[in-house]
Amino acid sequence: MLGQWPASKLAGVVVWCVMLIGPAAGVTASETDREETGTAEEPRYTLEPAEVIGRPWRDPITAPRTPSAALEPAITIVPRSEIASRGAQTLVAALEHVPGAWVETRGRKVKQFFSVRGQTYPYPDFALDGAWQREFHELPYFFATADLDRLEVLRSGAALLASPFGLAGVVDIVPRRPQAHEAAVELQYGSMETYRIHASHGDAGATWAYALGAQQSSTAGPEDRHAAEQMFHLRGSGYWEPTPELALQTHIFVLDGSRELAQAVPPAGARFRNAVQTYDPFRAALVTSSLHYHPDNRTSALVQMSYADRRHTFTDAEPDPPTTAQEEDREITLNVLGARALSAHNTLRLGVLYNNWVAPNGKRFYVGRRCALETYSAIIVNEHRWGAWVGDAGVRFSKTRIDEYGGFNIEGSGAGFGNVEPIMDTWEPGVWSGTLGAAYYLSQTLSFHMNVGSGLVRPRSGTLDTAGEVPADEWRTQLDLGLMAQHSRWGQAQATVFWLDQRDAIGLSGDSRELEGRVLELYVNRDQDQLGLELEARSVPLVGAVTAYANFTAMRSRARSDGSMKRNAEKPRYVGAAGLSGSHADADLNLFAKYISGYRNSRFVGTPVDLGGFVSLTLTGGYRLAAHGIRLFWEAENMLDGDLITVPGYPDYGRRLALGLRWELR
Fold first, then answer.
1. Are 226 and 276 in contact (CB under 8 A)?
2. Domains, the chain, ordered by start
């Protein structure tokens, strides 16, 4: 917990961050926009300046990370304004309204899983300002959004430029860069003794900028559920442009807190209802740095370095005596990506990635067994333009070396886990993936997009099937067909048809096994396919200052059972979200709705139970005292007070109310 840190240690962290980024300076606003969003100087679509609705014309030279034009309809940007108006204080909460978003909430070691298009394995990867994170899934429900500029969500699995493998999409977390001197304090208090205190400061000049932020949040959780949480979140960022051709930036995030694993309710089994398990302390330090070199309009290079250090202490109070395990892991990632215009119409991008992940004592289910993996990856992508047409093709190859891993070869039983001989100094088979895409811009307001991707998906390290063995590799093929329309007078609308074919798909079996006092969820290989339609629309300000958005995803999911393909009842058929925001004078009011259709799952209960089938409503509002730089706000979550169950035995905590104040210092 934060209280366990000496004041001198906490002060040292703050001073360290200030010293690291204080001398730094940042790129100009226009260069930053081009680097982070992939825009060129001349926008493809001209929209209302107050609303970021359309997507500017792409420039892979200025921004080498720019995704394929074929994938534009599959990219969702969650802006800071929407995050704030919905009162979304964590990453997972901010992602709830992404098209097709499905969040599974439970009380296990990974509290919440975010997925899109019903893809539950592997779950989408995460990146921090473009730097891929191998082990991040236990952090999103703690990671604060107050210092973020936006979230960029690639819903399609053809994420060659963002992830060395996965084929399930990527969420890129983009920190906010100040444009001028600023300082603010925000206070909030609500149901279940929940409070949040956030302070931020930043400044910017012609070639530099820096940002500092700190947040303390805490909740007691519902009574008799053992669900208290608290987290201290520290952020520091520095930006510097020493020459017009060179831009540097660094981000530091430190998290320190504790979390009680919420106890389940019936029909979950007794061991989940009675468990008294805690992460205390729960700590993580994340550092990312990037160097962007852009010597001319034909060449650019991006070098990204990322370091993560996560140290969690897990205690299970049920055994006599109680057990404690140190779950630590570290990872270092180096990613180099270069872009070169071979002609006025052709661009080649080449990249290499190296990731080193070490968990000295194992992690989660495999505590006590050292894990050390190294991943090497290379990519080549070529893009060509023919007038209104843009075509691209790309290939990525990844290969992982197992320095040591003790989670394999259990041979059908977890009973002898402690005696398993670890695998040492072994190379896993290489993983290939490739994409082919095209986009046709019929006009400045209408465009058509198509993308197909295919490749291998290896089981995540540490997973086992129902026989106690490592699941087989999955071969995945997916197709995206999208139509986009946008106009400065009304906004943006798009429709996407997606198809996914999974041979030997890796999925949760619904079974679990108790392994040396820990519950291990087991996986299974089976053929699956999915056909879906995504609809999304966003308006510019209408009738004065009213904006609206809505999205709806319909999916037909099938899995092989008894020799034939049958409906996969473990996934919802329909997912929808909508929002309506309005303001008048100094007051604002916002209404948000989320819908998940019914599905069934037997996880933690043994027999399938009905889940989903609910509508969740959130209402927020505020009033601004402009003369004093103060905004008073309030939030009401789960207004209908529904159970909102997405995982058996773990219902939502019910209706929650909160009041707050934000003071922008001048």
1. yes
2. 2-665 (2.40.170.20)
